[in-house]
Design the sequence.
């Protein structure tokens, strides 16, 4: 149901070079800049992540745009009244697409998701199931039925994430079941089409 993100987006050499000129708090200034190059970078990030994440929220795994818009999410907050990490505003592994519900003020909002800080992002430790760094199957269990897909936690990270994102609210449980049923039907149809196409190729080859 929920897949680990195993690919980073890429930028052009010019875009990477431009961002390299911003460090620390200046990364936040760059993020909010109205410069065309920043607008182009954000569009490229969004477009690539939609493909990489297969149009699904990085936190709940539900399809984007069906119930809310997608948002470029900072996994640890770039700006927050609680604690902010502006230096990671453009760190690739800190950016993913989430649905508005998971990232809203009543869910993640400005929550500090950092557990142990390090100046190098990959050495930080996080409270939540990290979309890039964690395999969801090691942190979540799944109970399936035709009308419900209920999550359970297998770790403290899983427990924290289920509570933070409201992953076991009725609407999410039912939405996961609907998505699973749709994907099963789609997979069967695709399998049948592949078999049909193979038969057609064999028939055409022997003519």
Sequence:
């Amino acid at each position: 149901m929920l897949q680990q993100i195993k690919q980073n987006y890429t930028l052009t050499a010019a875009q990477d070079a431009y961002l390299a000129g911003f460090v620390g708090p200046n990364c936040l200034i760059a993020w909010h800049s109205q410069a065309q190059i920043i607008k182009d970078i954000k569009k490229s990030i969004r477009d690539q992540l939609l493909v990489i994440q297969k149009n699904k929220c990085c936190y709940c795994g539900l399809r984007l745009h069906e119930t809310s818009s997608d948002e470029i999410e900072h996994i640890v907050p770039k700006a927050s009244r609680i604690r902010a990490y502006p230096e990671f505003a453009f760190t690739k592994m800190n950016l993913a697409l989430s649905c508005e519900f998971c990232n809203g003020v009543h869910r993640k909002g400005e929550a500090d998701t950092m557990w142990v800080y390090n100046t190098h992002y990959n050495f930080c430790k996080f409270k939540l199931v990290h979309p890039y760094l964690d395999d969801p199957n090691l942190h979540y269990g799944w109970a399936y039925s035709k009308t419900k897909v209920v999550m359970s936690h297998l770790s403290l990270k899983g427990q924290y994430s289920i509570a933070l994102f409201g992953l076991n609210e009725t609407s999410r449980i039912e939405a996961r079941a609907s998505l699973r049923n749709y994907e099963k039907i789609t997979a069967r149809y695709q399998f049948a089409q592949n078999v049909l196409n193979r038969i057609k190729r064999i028939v055409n080859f022997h003519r």
